[in-house]
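Incident log, support desk, overnight shift.

02:14 A customer reports that sequence design results differ from what the structure should imply. Their input is reproduced verbatim below. On-call engineer (initials T.W.) acknowledged and began investigating.
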């Protein structure tokens, strides 16, 4: 049975699905979902690019930041911890973890020996690839799991995870708030407005979200629950999130009055038409990425309510540039094609207006105070 047939049968049996339920099936169905079915989703042969696809420098710079974090999370006797956990959520096949470990092994050997990786990934195919992907670093792999560990001393990080968690599109009509459901019309899926779910009502009330009549937006209680869960499992250390999105004041404004729901396929961005009579995310479930922008205000409020302290909120550009000076010192005097590739990759990662500006870095701490991390040297600078 195809995923389309599976979803259609569920609708026929139970009635229209919340869009969030549809999105969860389209992306994460155990056998047919986009993120569980496709071996390589990003890069030239995939549907979109991430910072990991640009080269190894992204992972190398993260390794530098994690090594500094390690020095700030001492054990009860005041010494550097020898059980520093690095937990990557949404780890895919483990490519980013390998880049981090490759660099840490040579640049920060003491940190490398003291740390272990837990890779968290919903896809069984992704989890099965972890040990092979990280290769010689397999002894540093503590676990390959579906969920975060229950107790974490170290750092939890996620690169482009929250934007792919199932979201709830909503519309403010002249008669009040409505939520978008997915229904069938013959052999095609269509959007249908219905009463907001209790989850959406609670989220909108909690974060004071206001929309003008005619505006469309997305809210993501799933992302909020994930941040809450991560904060509760982190006993001592850092939470670092890298994603694209906006503060609530911008996300729920005229600038985004048609919402941010999009899908990617073969590096083509698809959005709905002005009246959303066509919805590309409903065309071929399981065949393309579906994503929405993250509400960073909700993320920060949730983290702080769970006892975390905000250490930095800044563009990826400024975060990486703050780490580059030390990284470049390691590679000073290098010439040739490899050095040129590194410079071009770095330019792509930090160039204003590109991925460096669209992606933000949010760093929170628990039990570590509010240190001036090397990656946060530009404080809360964003564009």
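02:41 Re-run completed on a clean worker. Output:
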């Amino acid at each position: 049975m195809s995923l389309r047939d599976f979803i259609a049968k569920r609708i026929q049996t139970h009635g229209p699905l919340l869009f969030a339920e549809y999105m969860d099936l389209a992306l994460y169905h155990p056998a047919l979902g986009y993120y569980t079915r496709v071996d390589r989703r990003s890069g030239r042969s995939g549907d979109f690019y991430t910072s990991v696809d640009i080269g190894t420098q992204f992972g190398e710079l993260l390794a530098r930041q994690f090594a500094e974090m390690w020095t700030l999370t001492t054990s009860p006797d005041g010494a550097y911890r020898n059980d520093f956990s690095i937990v990557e959520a949404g780890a895919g096949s483990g490519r980013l973890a390998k880049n981090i470990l490759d660099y840490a092994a040579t640049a920060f050997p003491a940190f490398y020996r003291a740390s272990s990786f837990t890779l968290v990934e919903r896809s069984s195919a992704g989890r099965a690839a972890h040990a092979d992907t990280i290769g010689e670093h397999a002894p540093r792999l503590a676990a390959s799991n579906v969920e975060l560990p229950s107790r974490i001393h170290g750092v939890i990080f996620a690169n482009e995870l929250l934007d792919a968690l199932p979201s709830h599109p909503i519309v403010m009509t002249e008669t009040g708030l409505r939520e978008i459901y997915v229904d069938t019309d013959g052999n095609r899926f269509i959007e249908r407005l219905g009463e907001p779910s209790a989850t959406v009502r609670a989220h909108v009330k909690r974060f004071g979200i206001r929309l003008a009549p005619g505006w469309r937006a997305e809210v993501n209680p799933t992302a909020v629950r994930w941040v809450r869960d991560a904060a509760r499992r982190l006993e001592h250390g850092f939470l670092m999130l890298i994603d694209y999105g906006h503060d609530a004041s911008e996300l729920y404004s005229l600038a985004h009055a048609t919402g941010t729901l999009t899908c990617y396929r073969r590096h083509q961005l698809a959005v709905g038409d002005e009246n959303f009579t066509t919805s590309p995310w409903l065309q071929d479930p399981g065949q393309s990425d579906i994503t929405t922008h993250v509400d960073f205000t909700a993320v920060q409020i949730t983290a702080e309510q769970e006892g975390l302290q905000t250490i930095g909120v800044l563009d990826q550009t400024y975060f990486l540039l703050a780490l580059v000076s030390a990284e470049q010192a390691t590679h000073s005097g290098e010439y040739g094609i490899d050095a040129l590739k590194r410079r071009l990759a770095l330019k792509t990662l930090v160039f204003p207006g590109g991925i460096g500006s669209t992606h933000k870095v949010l760093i929170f701490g628990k039990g570590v105070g509010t240190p001036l991390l090397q990656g946060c040297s530009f404080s809360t600078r964003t564009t």
